[in-house]
Write a structure and sequence with these properties.
The chain is 63% helix and 3% strand. The chain contains four helices and two strands; from the N terminus they run αααββα. The protein has helices at residues 15-41, 53-68, 72-77, 94-123, and strands spanning 79-80, 90-91. Helix 1 (15-41) runs antiparallel to helix 2 and helix 2 crosses helix 4. The longest helix has 30 residues, at 94-123.
Amino acid sequence: MPKPAYQPGICNINTAEVAYRKRWGYIGSYLFIVLGGLMLLGEASWWMRLVLFLPAYVGAIGFLQARNRFCVAYAAAGQQNAREASRKPIKVSDTHYALDAIKARRLKIQASAIALLATSLLAFI
């Protein structure tokens, strides 16, 4: 029997959604590198470089969501879009919502840690 597309707390997006999140991972990473480079060349103060946390977080959360096939926004809204032919998210049951919320919290913590590390390294160079 084939594995179901939606798996609570494990997978809540399809291949097209994964590609979208990966694209945002590249955008965030690119912005972090370009803005960070400009700030270093312009000798911006260390506290001004802290704004790089935002693009670093966008890049990290994008790649984490793509790798895990899991969208934190869908989890927060109690939705999923894991069926390959689907274009619109659908609601999940209350029991599944709790598992999705736990997974989303873990991904946000991981992305925050990655962004904090990257920003700290660049801020104090």
